[in-house]
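note to self — DONT lose this again. spent like an hour looking for the file last time. sequence + predicted structure for the chain T wanted, 137 res
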Amino acid sequence: MSAFEVTTPHRPSWLPGLMMALIGFAVWTLFSLWPWLMNSHAPFRVREAWDTTLFWHIGVPVMLLAQCAGSALSEGKIYRQPLGMLGGFLAGVLLVHPAGSDFGMMPLAAIMIGIPAYLALFGAAAVGRMLADYIGK
């Protein structure tokens, strides 16, 4: 190594997964609280995020674009990359939910929402990786 060689800083391998988890948690939380945020004089009420139209119109595309960008900017096994987003999303589901609700529907939600979400996020990660390879990151 010569004295003039400049190395690029090393990015921790766990950082993209953490960022995806934070985005997944933030999307669930924001859209669960959205009806109350827009009508703040009403009593505080939490809804499930997927019951709001904006979750599907804005939240889901934001998660897919973030997954695409995160995959383009990071290395690692591509099949693991959606797990960060899903983990953050699941943490939001468990921590921010309507009062008095239980988790009786959680197994069905894991099958009906979790599996298709993983496949969509995996597709976004694959597109991001292909774009990064095409551009030549």
